[in-house]
Amino acid sequence: MRVTAAARRWMVEPALSIVTGRTMLAEWKVLEKTQHLPIAALRGRQEESLRRLVASVYDISPFYRRRFDDAGVKPRDLLSVDDLARLPVLTKGDVRRAGRALVSASVGPGRLMESRTGGSTGVPLVLHFTEMVSERRNAAARRSNRWTGWEVGEPIAAVWGNPHLPSSARQRLRHHLLNPVIYLDTMQLRAETIRRFAREWRRTRPTLLFGHAHSIYALACEVRAQGIDDIRPKGVLATSMMLLAPERTVIEEVFGIPVFDRYGCEEVGLIGAECERHDGMHVNVDHVVVEFLRDDGSRAEPGELGRVVVTDLLNEAMPLIRYDVGDMAAERPGACACGRGLPLMERVAGRTADFLKRSDGTRVAGVSLIENSLTKFPGIAQLQIVQDDLDLIRLRVVPDERFDEEARGLLVGYFRETFPGAAVRIELAAEIQREPNGKFRFAICHVPD
Known about the structure:
Rossmann fold
C-alpha cells in the first residue's frame, strides 16, 4: 500500500491525532507561528513559562523547595530570566545523587516515560518525563527539520547508533503510514552496509538525511569512494555531536547541498538549530532558558565562550532548573536575517570534558585543535587527541596515503607549540573506535580540574 507524503500530512496524521489524542501536531502548529514573533514577545512568553514552572516546582518538589529555601529564594522572586542567577547551578552529579528525589510525586508512575544518557562519562543519567513533554519536544524538532527543506510526511534517512527499529506489526504499520524512516546503523558503517543503505534509499526516496555529524561525514566519504551518485536529499541535518568545518565541507560537496547543524541533549531536547541562513543557531526559547556562564558563575558577554546552563520549561515531572549540560558555547548578538524572532547562539565549541589543559592552567578546545590539524596537515583521515596528564599528549591518527614523515613532524610540532613542555606521541590506528552510543569523541582529557 503506497501512501504519499501529502496523504500523511493532510489525512493520516490529523486522523491519528484525533483518535490517539496526540498533541504534537497542535504544538507544532503553534511553534510555526511563534518563531516569527518579535524577540520581546518571545521573551515575554518564555518568562511566563518560567514563572509557572518555579511556582509549580516549589509546591510539588521537596528537592527544589529545599534548594530554593537554602538560597533564600521564593518563587515570587524569580520574575525574569536574569533572576535565575539567584539559584545554584544543577550539575550532573547533583542529578545522579538526587535520583528519584528529583521526580515529582504528583505525576503517577504510569504516566512517566524513561530514557538514559551516559554522556562523556559513561555513567548514565536516568531521566523521567511525560508523554506530553515528549510530544512537545518532537514538535520543536519538526519545526527545525522543516528549515532544511524537508516537509512533513516525507521519508527520512537516519544515520544513528543502535536505532530503535519497529518490531511489532502495529509499529511497522504506524511507521509506514506516519513516520517512514530508513536507518544506517553507525555501529555498522561498512562498505556493504552502505551499499545496502543506498539500495533502500532508492526504494524509499528520503528527502532528509539526519544523524550524528561525524557519521554523516563517514557516509559521505564512503559514498564518494564507491561512486554512488543518487543519494540526493533536500536537506542534511547533523546533530548529536560536533560538526567540524572540514567535515561540513566534504558532506556538502558529496551531497550537493548545505548542511544544517542542530544542538540539543537527551535531558532537555532541542536547544538550538541552524536555519537556512547558517548564521548561528536559533535558540528554542519556547521550551528552554539558556545561559552562558563563566567559570566563576557570572554571565558571559555575547560572543564570549561560556558553560551552557539550561532550564527546561516543559518537564515538571523531573524538573531541571539551571542544569549544566557540560558544553561550551556563546550567545550570538543581533538578529538573524531570516526574520525569525528566535535569538541566536554560536555553534557549540565542545564539551567541557573535551577541553584540554596546559600546564599554566589555561584550556584549549579539543575541537579547534582537530579542525586546525585536519585543515593544515596532509594525510590525516581521522584524529583523536588523548591527554593523560599535563606532560603527555597522545594523537591517535588514522592516516591516508599522504601521511609521511614531514606530515608527522608538522603535526607533532604544532602540538608541542600548543602545549609547551608536554611530550607528544603519535599512535597510528586503522580506525577511531566509537563510543557505545555510536558517537565519536575527538578529544579526551583525563586531567582533573
